[in-house]
Amino acid sequence: MTTPFDPARQQASTVCLPPGNWATVLDCLCDHFKAIERAQWLDRFARGRVLNAEGQAIAADLPYRRGMRLHYFREVPNERPIPVEEAILHVDEHLVVADKPHFLPVTPTGEYVEQTLLRRLIRRLDNPHLVPLHRIDRHTAGLVLFSANPQTRSAYQRLFPERRIDKRYHAIAPALPQRDFPLVHKSRLVHGEPFFRMHEVPGDDNSETLAEVLEKQGELWRYGLSPVTGKTHQLRVHMAALGAGICNDPFYPELLKVEDDYQRPLKLLAHSLRFADPLTGEERYFESRLTLGW
């Protein structure tokens, strides 16, 4: 009996061809993925890196059909190695907890595919079913929680939208002696320009952060940050809005065009996670082994 093609195990991406008037599958893919040149798609077809729903290689001149399900392999030519190392803190049947270093993306995006925390863990644990249950920025270090079992994944995924998980971060930023701590900062965050930056605008609040002071050292303080919501770059934007942009932040309060400097990482750490296990009810607590130096 033939085993069905499993795109997760093969680490393949999947696309269903959208409505259109293309003559071939190649024409559709070139138009749909405009950032990938036609020559690159032709090379993938030639190497058998574009497959049909059954996992069989197809030809570039295969006639287009709306809704056709295809699998393909994301590739970044000459992907640059990221010279940092992740640490696995916990593994069980359902969960994997890892410490992500600064500069390493969680999932494939843009110029990074193999140099991501997800792909590294899949290889190390030989588990193609790993899926991150949440995200932290590439510039941020610390804890990332992964589902290791598709059968129980939804139970853990619900922890985040239902706000049944306590996430705590540490950050080093300029002192704010004029403000009273602890404090709660609320605002409305939307995407700005460039597209990857967030900014605050008038309107109903959609983001909330509890901030407290953990340690003081001259002009810099160590802050404890607890996000109630999970908007992109929320902690970075909120700290900048308070007047204390997190140290070494290349995006906030101003966008800096700088190369990655491994000696000057963003001083933001996903420090701990606490939640009641949705399967057993027991309290689970995980704490990063990484620290933020002054």
UniProtKB/TrEMBL annotation:
Keyword Magnesium: no
EC number from the UniProt entry: 5.4.99.28
GO terms under biological process: enzyme-directed rRNA pseudouridine synthesis
UniProt-recorded name of the protein: Pseudouridine synthase
Top-level taxon: Bacteria
Keywords, in A-Z order: Isomerase
GO molecular function terms attached to this record: RNA binding; tRNA pseudouridine(32) synthase activity
One Pfam family of this chain: PseudoU_synth_2
Top-tier EC class: isomerase
KW Disulfide bond (keyword) present: no
Organism: Pseudomonas putida (Arthrobacter siderocapsulatus)
Residues covered by the Pseudouridine synthase RsuA/RluA-like domain: 94-241
InterPro entries: PsdUridine_synth_cat_dom_sf, PsdUridine_synth_RluA-like_CS, PsdUridine_synth_RsuA/RluA, RluA_PseudoU_synthase
